[in-house]
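Course assignment 3, question 2. Fill in each field.
Student: A.L.
Task: Predict the tertiary structure for the chain below.
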Amino acid sequence: MRLVSLHLENYRQFRTLDLEFPEGLIGIVGPNGSGKTTLVEAVAWTLYGNKREIVRAGKDSIKWAGAGRGDRVLSSLVFVLEGEEYTLERTMKDASLWSGKNLLAKGTRAVEDKIVELLGMEYPEFSASVYARQKELSMLSRKTPEERRRLVHRLMGITAVEEARDRARRKRRELESRLEGAMDVIYRDGVDQRDTIRKEMEEAKGRMDGVVEAMETEERRLEEIRKRLENAEGVLAELEGRRKEYNRLLREMEGVKGRLEATRREAKALAVQIGELRERGKEMPRLEKLEEEYVRARERNERLESEKEKWQKAEALGKEMDRLRAELDGMEGRMEGLKAEAARREEVEGQLADVEEKKKAVEGEIERLSVLKGEIEGRISGLRNTLGEKEEHLNQIAGLGEEGVCPTCERPLGGHYRELLAKYGREMEDIRSRMEEAEEERRDVEERMEGEKRHLAALDKKRRKLEGELKRLEGAAAELRELERRRKEIKERLETLASERDGLGEVAHDPEEHGRVKALLAELEESHRSYIMLSESLSRLPELERREGTLGEEIGRLSGRLEALEEKMSALAFSEEEYEEARRDVEALRREERGVMERLSALREDRASLSASLRSLESRLEELGEAERKIRGFREEIRYLEALAGSRSSDRAVFNDFLRFLTDRMRPLLREHASAFFNVITDDRYGGLELDEDYSVRIYDAGPEPLPVSRFSGGEEDVANLSLRLAISRVLWERSGERIQFVILDEIFGSQDERRRENIIRVLDSLSNTFRQVFIITHIEGIKERVEHIIRVEEMEDGSSRAFLE
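Answer field:
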């Protein structure tokens, strides 16, 4: 894998970045805290996403502090692997991997799985392969032997084998516990539960035989009862048929008797009504003469009522026309005044439009000043954050003193102490000056905004006054239009009323004659009502006479039907006592049948319960058989895991033998590479390095036995640790099949002098034959003359950083 280019947007210190990576020995230089290490972390984040080891302070710390809420965090990495170029893009919530124009994976989980598949390693193995940190180097010699062994094994990937062995041991212990549980299931208190279950099954089968025999006896008895019941039910059914016919005839006879009585009463009442009508018919001639006089008086009254209505309508039309003419006369003066008011409307509208135009201009200026104020406040906020960071750095350096150690490179500050204090002091003074200028600019903008706001308030006041005047004038114009419409409407209405009045013609009305006619109608009203009622009653007389004849015929028919029903009931010969006796016999047999069926139901329940018990016992017996098979499986798997990871009584196992093979093979290989690097860096001053079983480093000096690094200076210890870490990277490169083509070394020069630095560069230059890209992160400016390429990282005025290839 070789890095080609990196594009960043709002990632930590980098607001934006476009950087191409050359091949060879590459120095990443810049002041402490400028973002050199961030470049390396950006590559790791792009490849493996939001892992805790990468994001450190949490996902929220990834976004550049000066970015807006809606600004995205984006990283795009181009790399080459086995001759094929890939592009990987990642945001906070999404990721996509491309090979040319082909989309290989989409989504954070899918992309991470694809990266692991392509590189053949998870993030810890990747980080160990490509990234050597200065603090990690010093930790090699300062850790305890066990801690150092675990660290080297983790870097070399041996930890994965140890973890697999430990998982196998945990699995074996788990299976042993499950084996004991399965044994307890079968052999409870030393008794084989299968024998107990078989004995219970035999007892249940014996009880089952007794229940089946009792069921057969009850079933035979039930069959005999049902035969007797069938005969008794036949007798009862025949009696029930006769009983139903008897009751039907009885109900029909009662109904015929009722209808016969009702018909006789109706015939008697009808004869009385017919006699009364014939007597009242004698009054009809006198009432007919009075009715003729009533008809003549009613016709005369209708003519007089019509004349009265025309006279009343003519009177109403005259009054309406007089009212409308008066309203029309009063309307003319009001219309003249309203016409004068309407003439001022155009003038007020022009004044209002002028005010609105001025108001929009002032609002636009206020908006522009508000945006300008926001930009200034954003600049002040950025400067304030930068000032806080500078002050924090200054306090940190001041607290360390001249004898303190640089927190980044772990070298004594020495003469750089006062230079750093002065540098941070100048930078802070410059930031304060820029903040004061920005504050003054903000106050000026605020004063201008206040003036424009006062102008806007005055314009609003004038606009409201003009709008009120315009509203009043619009009301006057509306009133004028309404009066003109009303005047036209009145004139049209007067023409219509005059036409209606002319259409009535000659109008005359005699109230005295009208009163005499009404009085005569009132006198004749009683005789008119008597005439109407008697006419209606006499018209019904023929129908009543026909009904009287029909009722006589019905009385004869019902009397004959009653005699026929009495004869049928006598011939049926039904006895209620005989019926009740047959019914009691059937009920007794049914009770006896229910008793037998209840006993049978209880026996069936016993049989079902015994069947369920037998099935349960058979199921338990099968479960115990399954437990026996599991026991054999557990024992087989435990023997297999003991062969892999050892047992409680023996440490001999495949994993342990493999671990010993790996460490025995790895340590000489690491010693060989580390000694070669150490000899070059120290100008062959020593005889090389030796590694103990716990990977503690020893140096061959004058004698035949290697000496601990603690016997030498701190510079020699740093070189020994660096040589071991470079050897680890070289071995990991060989084990990866040369898939990883770059390595990153972070602040590795420590307190080395110029000669040692040149030797380290020479070693790294030789590594460039192995790795196509060797990155050196350092704040030492002098290194740029000794490497092929320089990537410079600088801090900008707004607190962000930039990186570029010199």
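Instructor remarks: Residues 277 and 537 are 7 Å apart (CA to CA). The mean pLDDT is 83.
Grade: pending
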